[in-house]
């Protein structure tokens, strides 16, 4: 695959969605290599430390061992997630992993908005605890990396390698768009990567404790997120993306 075709400036006229790379990693390493060569130090990987996250961390470490990685630490994550981050830090000591906190503590949020905001107004809660911190983390960054895969949900089915991100005034790179869930786990097992223990308890997608349950038998892999609420995304990946 010609890396020029991945250029953001060309992507609208290039049918990236029709590209089907045939290498074992489905283009992921090539896309990452292009990303760091094109955008250099101003690339941030916003990692949730899910299964796709640890695959991307391993791939990124092969290209840029001191890459900038941000975890949006809402103060509401499972202990298993924090345990995994500690293991990743040990395995990849040169990576620059930052746990980005919201401006408001949970107590301050309760005082200003009432308790359990995630029940009353989850969009506002996500804005305070995820979107605003990512906005701050991406200040000065020209590109950010995300582990979105097309098969995860309908809302992600048209994601491209390179997406103009109107929400964060940046470019969003998604190297794993063609990976299946099976591809992700094959890579994890083949490379003996640490992963979140909750994945073995039917949590394919893991976020904050109040908004994460095991996946339903009939739903997609994100069916355990915001169950019972009219919400499927935290707002980091909105339809404002040009895809
Ligand atoms: Fe709040 Fe839930 Fe969003 Fe976490 S996922 S920031 S708890 S609404």
From TrEMBL:
Protein name according to UniProt: Adenosine 5'-phosphosulfate reductase
Residue ranges of domain Phosphoadenosine phosphosulphate reductase in the record: 43-214
Presence of the UniProt keyword Protein biosynthesis in the record: no
CDD domains, per the entry: PAPS_reductase
Any Pfam family hit: PAPS_reduct
Function description: Catalyzes the formation of sulfite from adenosine 5'-phosphosulfate (APS) using thioredoxin as an electron donor.
Cofactor: [4Fe-4S] cluster
């Amino acid at each position: 695959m010609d890396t020029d075709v991945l250029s953001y400036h060309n992507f609208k006229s290039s049918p990236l969605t029709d590209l089907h790379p045939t290498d074992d990693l489905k283009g992921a390493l090539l896309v990452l290599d292009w990303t760091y060569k094109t955008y250099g130090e101003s690339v941030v990987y916003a990692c949730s430390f899910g299964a796709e996250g640890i695959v991307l961390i391993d791939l990124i470490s092969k290209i840029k061992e001191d890459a900038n990685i941000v975890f949006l630490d809402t103060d509401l994550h499972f202990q298993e997630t924090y345990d995994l981050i500690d293991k990743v830090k040990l395995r990849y000591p040169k990576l620059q992993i930052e746990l980005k906190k919201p401006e408001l503590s949970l107590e301050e949020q309760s005082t200003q908005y009432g308790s359990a905001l995630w029940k009353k107004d989850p969009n506002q809660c996500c804005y305070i605890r995820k979107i605003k911190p990512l906005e701050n983390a991406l200040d000065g960054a020209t590109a950010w990396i995300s582990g979105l895969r097309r098969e995860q949900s309908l809302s992600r089915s048209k994601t491209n390698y390179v997406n103009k991100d109107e929400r964060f005034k940046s470019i969003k790179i998604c190297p794993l768009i063609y990976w299946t869930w099976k591809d992700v786990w094959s890579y994890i097992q083949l490379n003996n990567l640490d992963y979140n223990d909750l994945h073995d308890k039917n949590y394919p997608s893991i976020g904050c404790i109040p908004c994460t349950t095991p996946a339903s038998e009939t739903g997609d892999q994100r069916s355990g997120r915001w169950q019972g609420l009219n919400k499927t995304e935290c707002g980091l990946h909105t339809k404002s993306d040009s895809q």
